[in-house]
Write a structure and sequence with these properties.
Elements (H helix, E strand, L loop, with lengths): L7 H13 L2 H19 L12 H61 L3
Helix pairs in contact: 1-3
């Protein structure tokens, strides 16, 4: 199967999807959330995001809003690759079936000539 030419956007979507679906990403996000909450819960004079952490909610919503379509783009390309692979498999199976049918016909002819039927 020939290698497909990927656009910059497709390559970026694959990289982001690979990273976004990893434990490393989950640990980084959980650390970010935990640090945000701790820093904004310490009784300092200036807190940039007081309870109920509206700015944290906004940043996480923006992350989800950007990450979801990127993951969907990558999955769509994966589905297209799978469909193409299935088509190749189907064509190979059809060819193999035709060849097996030809071999079976030849075997019948050979058996008939040898009188083994």
């Amino acid at each position: 199967m020939p290698r497909e030419k990927l656009t910059v956007g497709q390559k970026a979507a694959d990289v982001i999807t690979t990273f976004g679906g990893s434990w490393k990403f989950i640990i980084i996000v959980l650390s970010y959330i935990g640090l945000w909450i701790v820093v904004n819960s310490i009784p300092w004079e200036y807190k940039w995001d007081k309870w109920p952490f509206i700015m944290l909610n906004l940043t996480l919503s923006c992350l989800a809003a950007m990450q979801a379509p990127i993951i969907l783009m990558s999955q769509k390309r994966g589905n297209e690759r799978d469909r193409l692979n299935q088509r190749y498999d189907y064509l190979v199976n059809r060819k193999a079936e035709r060849e097996i049918s030809t071999i079976m016909k030849d075997l019948k002819k050979i058996k008939k000539r040898l009188d083994l039927t």
